[in-house]
Amino acid sequence: MFYDRAKIEIRAGKGGNGCVSFRREKFVPKGGPDGGDGGDGGDVIFAASNRIRDLMYFQRQRHFRGENGKPGQGANKHGRRGEEKLVLVPPGTQLLDAAGDLVADLTLDGQRFTAARGGKGGRGNARFSSSTRRAPRFAELGLAGEERTISLELKLLADAGLLGFPNAGKSSLLRMISHARPKVADYPFTTVAPMLGTVEEPEHRNQFTVADIPGLLEGASDGVGLGDQFLVHLERTRLLIHLVDATGYYGKDPVDNFLTINKELSGFSPELAAKWQLVIVNKIDLVDAETAAALVVKLAAAIEVRCRAHDPAFAWLLEDAAGEPDAVHGEAAILRISAATGAGVQNMTRLSYSLLQRAWLTEPVVDAAEPEGHITYRPGADDHWEVIQEEGRYRVVGSVVERMIARTDWENEEAVGFLQERLERLGVSDALRTAGAAPGEDVIIGEVEFELW
Asked: Distance between CA 180 and CA 211 in Å, rounded?
């Protein structure tokens, strides 16, 4: 079973609490506060690894947690940072948030993305010592780590993709040209999951990867036969090797099948439909030479119509070997093979690699040693806050005040008094009174509800 989708829950570690401590040594009876800070919580980090094939692991493991930071200690000892949780995924994995928006696209081995950041550790009481507060008996609490739901979607990373109707011979071809061993049988939908194979170009100097996906049916772009889930694995390819069954599919005209597949590509994604296609007539060992030749003529006519209409999928056919435009290759561009006997397969791999070379030349080179990860824009500290009136209560919203509340130990009267001082300095108390809040009325900041003093 090949798993290409999963939904998981991640939570970064909570920051450790700050420590309340005072230096007490012989001959130093009142040495002052020396409580250390708590350690930050551990992040949850995703990393692409070639050792991972699919998302099977996430079918049984759906919760990932970063380690909590350790609390601070006396003698100004800071707590240890929580260990990060490293989650390995196969290259080609996309991370989507709960709204379905893309947050990361890990395509290269070793690429990393921090999906949830650990909470900051609380400051120890040594941090709050001042000329007017010589012996603070409070410390900050650690902040909670980020928590989110992540959907994982794997899109195979392959240079070329095999597509066609069921029983077109895609799996047989993959077995012939690579060391992959997909199941092969004489009935449709033998292949039920995508598979990758590595192909050696006939001179054995070059390699490229090929993805075999289950056969497509009419309506695949709308989900018929799970076609929409299979088509995503062709989105990263640079070349589509389109296999046309010379015998037809359940008696249908092979040319009609060819046009149907292209219609489904367009319905699924214009970008996928625009990828270069190499059209291959397969199973020539099962039809006579005249039938195969007539099929090639009809296919060439259909392709030439698309070329003249500037269909980008067949743009490569408008250039001859010398690179001169407007030279439609016609029947010579349609290869005839037998995936069962191997006839014509070497010519197909040579032409496939030649087309891939041309495609690679148009793409920017990315240094694998310094992979370019998905960029996430994280705003800095937001100092903006505002007061909102709600049904007899007042709510203060803004990350700066919400962090103050979350860090406060409400069981410590001195810590609450310090919070009041900070809110006064920030102008929050004045803003509440201006909005009409009187002492004793309910005020909500973050997850905490309290009475205005």
From this structure: 10
Token pair listed for 252: 């249908």
pLDDT number for residue 375? 43
The token pair at 71 is 């609390």
Q: Calculate mean pLDDT across residues 45-62.
A: 91
CATH superfamily, domain 1-154, is GTP1/OBG domain (2.70.210.12)
Per-domain residue ranges for the chain?
1-154, 160-361, 386-451
Residue 441 pLDDT:
86
Name which of 246-255, 281-290, 334-343 the model is least confident about.
246-255
Q: How far apart are CA 424 and CA 418, in angstroms?
A: 10
Residue 320, phi then psi, degrees to nearest 5: -85, -170
Out of 12-26, 102-116, 330-344, which region has the weakest mean confidence (pLDDT)? 330-344
Q: Residues 12, 117: contact at Cβ < 8 Å? A: yes
Cα Rg of the chain, angstroms: 32
pLDDT of 317-335, one tens digit each?
876 544 555 555 667 778 9
Question: Beta strands 442-445 and 448-451: pairing type?
Answer: antiparallel
Cα–Cα distances (Å) from 61 to 50, 87, 151, 239, in that order, read 20, 11, 13, 35
Name residue 302's amino acid. Answer: A
Residue 120 vs residue 370, higher pLDDT: 120
For the entire predicted model, the pTM comes to: 0.77
CA dihedral 424, 425, 427, 428 (to 10 degrees): -50
Give strand ranges (E) for 172-228. 195-200, 207-212
Cα(200)–Cα(216) distance, integer angstroms: 27
Enumerate residues 6+ apart whose C-beta is below 8 A from 28.
none
Per CATH, is 386-451 categorized as 3.30.300.350? yes
CATH number of 160-361: 3.40.50.300
